[in-house]
Amino acid sequence: MISKPHTKYIQSLQHKKLRDELNLFIAEGPKLVPELLKTGAFACKEVFAVKEWLEENEKLLRSHDSTSFNEVEFFELEKISALTTPNQVLAVFEKRSPVVDIETKGSITLVLDTIQDPGNMGTILRIADWFGIRHLVCSVGSADIYNPKVVQGTMGSLGRVNVLYTDLVTWLQQNKGVKVYAASLQGKGLSSFGKLKEGIIIIGNEAHGISDEVMQLVNEKITIPRIGEAESLNAAVATGIILSHVV
Amino acid sequence: MISKPHTKYIQSLQHKKLRDELNLFIAEGPKLVPELLKTGAFACKEVFAVKEWLEENEKLLRSHDSTSFNEVEFFELEKISALTTPNQVLAVFEKRSPVVDIETKGSITLVLDTIQDPGNMGTILRIADWFGIRHLVCSVGSADIYNPKVVQGTMGSLGRVNVLYTDLVTWLQQNKGVKVYAASLQGKGLSSFGKLKEGIIIIGNEAHGISDEVMQLVNEKITIPRIGEAESLNAAVATGIILSHVV
Fold first, then answer.
1. Is the ipTM of this complex over 0.95?
2. Please, which residues have CB within 8 angstroms of residue B102's CB and are 6 or more apart in sequence?
3. Which residues of A touch B127 (CB under 8 A)?
4. pLDDT in tens, A32-72
5. Which of A123, A233, A247 sits opposite B130 (nearest CB)?
6. CB-side exposure of A55: number of CA atoms within 13 Å?
7. Is B227 part of the contact surface with chain A (CB cutoff 8 Å)?
8. Which DSSP letter does residue A113 get?
9. Class of domain B108-246
């Protein structure tokens, strides 16, 4: 049985302010929770799961003896879950220490200028992980990677990509030795860019694109050639297409 | 003022069964509604909008004299809206006549095997439109393109792509002269495929991929090379990446 105050405290982790204060976040489901437990990227504080899940994952439990595992009924899971349809297990993890510096020399760094949709943010983290991108730099106005919707969308890639939240203009000025590329509707076609060994690639906001101040620090604009008539591509889709061509 | 029965009837269009029976669907927002009105792909039955929107779009209104335009208060819009945050205008459109046949010779046809997430379906419609794909064939278990979440995600591409819902196995057997490609984790790398002039490209379900019966009719499997460790890519992202390489 989860106490009322404990239920409230877990629910509070759906809000960024409380996640930041407590340095914790939640992850859910029989696929994601074991994956995060196995990567070891995040210390796990406590797990709430139905009996069946605990029985099936006995081995995993034994290898995490500092974690508190709690058997709960489904209706209790419903109370603490951030999902419309809770699924067997919810875990509370500690956030990693914030990334303070990222090495941009010799590798590809992905930069997000105010990606606000948590679904897009989660999908982009997975894309970065798929293409072996280790560093993601986000403007301070971007969606929080520990938002439950982002966490669920990352499918475990959360522990494999380093994310830095910072003021993009200042950060770009500090990294002036590395060429800066931007996804744009008015640039050079994708095919005119070969494979890149080093570079900073910026993806802009879903509705407004890249801000003017950031755009002034861009060296090359990359455009995905449009053959049909759609007005735009989803930001995560554009990220995937660009990375698949230049990485 | 919208009457109670009229409110209920518009709300009912959030359900597939009623959309099918009434042959209608809803679209919302000051960007999407004018775009759909301008394409002329769908006959517009009625529009409910706040005063400001009606004043700003007077010209558009005059060119649609068979449509009933109704001024409503914001609280009324909230009642009929399918969005969490309603936005100025909601329109009721007639669905197009169902597509019965699609010409696969000489062009690229995109096929979806049970894409269930409405967000993915909307994004894929936009991607198809971006790459000039005119024909989309969906298994009967795929998300309905007239689902409000799909409609909102298409950003107006809905009127420019022909969509056929059908049994994929039967349909593929009827189109045997055209080469069939499938997105798969175990295939040949993307770069070994040149630009295609003709072909059927199949994208599978978010969790289960392409069904066995459909896979048996596939000629070539296409794989997006994985450099990092992510377990999978989002279905819409995979669609975008594959099309950007082969179209």
1. no
2. B109, B135, B137, B162, B164
3. 230, 233-234, 237
4. 999 999 888 999 999 999 999 999 999 988 888 888 999 99
5. A233
6. 3
7. yes
8. E
9. alpha beta
The CATH 3.40.1280.10 domain(s) of chain B lie at 108-246
Interchain contact B157–A (C-beta under 8 A): yes
Q: Under an 8 A CB cutoff, do A229 and B127 touch?
A: no
Contact B133 A228 (CB under 8 A): yes
Please tell me the pTM assigned to this model.
Answer: 0.93
A228 and B155: CB-CB below 8 Å? no
- Asked if B240 is an interface residue toward chain A (Cβ–Cβ < 8 A), one would say yes
> B44 vs A54, A151, B213, CA distance in Å?
54, 40, 40
By C-alpha distance, the chain A residue nearest B158 is A230
Domain B4-94 belongs to what topology?
A: 60s Ribosomal Protein L30; Chain: A; (3.30.1330)
Residues of B in contact with A191 (CB under 8 A): none
CA distance A61 to B10: 50
Q: A131 contacts in B (CB within 8 Å)?
A: 226-228
Q: How far is B3 from chain A (nearest CA, A)?
A: 31
B41 in contact with A at a CB cutoff of 8 Å?
A: no
Chain A, window 52-91: residues with a beta carbon less than 8 angstroms from a chain B beta carbon? none
Cite the residue boundaries of each domain of chain B with CATH code 3.30.1330.30.
4-94
pLDDT by residue for chain B (247 residues), tens only, comes to 899 999 999 999 999 999 999 999 999 999 999 999 988 899 999 999 999 999 999 998 888 888 899 999 999 999 999 999 999 999 999 999 888 888 999 999 999 999 999 999 999 999 999 999 999 999 999 999 999 999 998 988 999 999 999 999 999 999 999 999 999 999 999 999 999 999 999 999 999 999 999 999 999 999 999 999 998 999 999 999 999 999 9
Q: How many whole angstroms separate alpha carbon A175 and alpha carbon A171? A: 6
State the nearest Cα–Cα gap between A1 and chain B, in angstroms.
33
Nearest residue to B222 (alpha-carbon basis) of B208, B207, B242: B242
CB contact under 8 A, A240 and B245: no
Looking at the partner chain, which of A157, A190, A234 has a beta carbon nearest the beta carbon of B236? Answer: A234
A-B C-beta contacts closer than 8 Å = 109
